[in-house]
Amino acid sequence: MNHMTTRRTDQMTLVAFMQASNVSVYAGSWRYKNSARDYLDLKYYQRIARVLEEGRFDLMFFDDRLAMPSIYGDSADDAVRYGARPIKLDLTAILGAAAAATENLGLGATYSTTYYEPFHVARTFATLDHLSGGRAAWNVVTSVNDAEARNFSVDSHTEHDRRYDRAEEFIDVVSRLWDSWEEDAIVGDQESGHFADPEKVHEINHKGEFFSVRGPLTVPRTPQGRPVIIQAGSSGRGREFAAKWADLIFTGAPSQAVATDQYTQQKALATEIGRDADKVRLLPMVYVIVGETEEIARSKEAIFLNELVHPMASLTLLSEVTNFDFAGYSLDDVVTDELINSISGIRGLVQGVKKHVGADVELTLRVLANHRATLLQGPRFVGTAAQIADQMDDWFQARSCDGFVIAATHFPGAFEDFVRMVVPELQQRGLTRTEYAGPTLRENLGLEQPANSFATDQESARV
């Protein structure tokens, strides 16, 4: 079927990829001359949040890690020296500041199920949901490397499937905690002194393999019922987890063909477990470089591709994501089958990069590392506003995605350019909204508020 003859009637979901850091996901962003340098100031994040809300983005999302990149050479020296994401601020204050500066923009953050506790995460996001008027989203992740483990009194990180076993129990506990107050539990009768109905505030009394949690949560039922759930797992287990739990699924596809294949498979997984696949949004990460002319956009692209990311920063970040110390290797070493077999979890990255550069190209560590730190990490939409809107529209109509996670080449200029040049073009074509649908993130995503499991249980008991 020709997708151009059957245009979609829904609109794109737009997410801005942020880091509370000296850099964006693009590791050379701090070196760009127009990058703002006040990333340790709350006003920096508030300025960006206001720009995103002006562009009617659905969500401002913050990635996170719990350690400096320090697997390479068993040291953080190169991460510090080359600015390879050595700074990661705690996100609680930043999300609160962004909430205060905006009214409709969704606010999401990564919190690990490997080193945090369910009660802490449940309370953090329930509080954010209340204080933002229903705009919170939690990106559920399992931590990735030994550097993070060593910051939490553990010698090495847990094996992959065991991390997901813990994550499954973790999110189940968090969900029950979010349900522990029913909608109408608070009475607030000042005359009688009756504050809340104890029959509608529940202990969860969870005892499992990883956690023992009594409850109730100390935060009442939130405006969204439960915050929106994000997931970005790419392994088989991660994709199953996302199909079960996620409202938004972030993907990393080197090309549109790969994105389309991921889209079809992930929607099928969601359908298999009984979910409405149309309510699960798949969003690939893309870079957008817009210029007043295509020549201007291409000249910007050349700067970001060739001049700003130090090769050692790339290799440091490759060690971080693979949990493997490449200090004994050269950037020009060929990625052999022997090397692939010796590193757990690198095979998927290698396959993805080969799809991007071509199976016949000899893959070196330099090329592989560049795909973790530079514009090669994801697809790029480059050109005028109309050209970029054409590319985004093509992906959307082809059902390669339900929208995009926009990665910034630099802060705040990449988002300012996108909002002031590309967004009006998208709005004119009806691809993105001109006004928010409502005050909560769920309303703007077209998602229903989840039923309270305790209220449902009690209704069943009365029947």
UniProtKB/TrEMBL annotation:
Protein's UniProt keywords contain Iron-sulfur: no
Pfam families for this protein: Bac_luciferase (PF00296)
Q: Name one GO molecular function term.
A: monooxygenase activity
The record's listing under SUPFAM superfamilies reads: Bacterial luciferase-like (SSF51679)
- Xref: CDD domains: Nitrilotriacetate_monoxgenase (cd01095)
InterPro entries xrefs: Diverse_substr_monoxygenases, Luciferase-like_dom, Luciferase-like_sf, NTA_MOA
Query: Is this entry keyworded NAD?
Result: no
Protein name (Swiss-Prot/TrEMBL) = FMN-dependent oxidoreductase (Nitrilotriacetate monooxygenase family)
> What is the scientific name of the source organism?
Williamsia limnetica
| Lineage of the species this protein comes from | Bacteria, Bacillati, Actinomycetota, Actinomycetes, Mycobacteriales
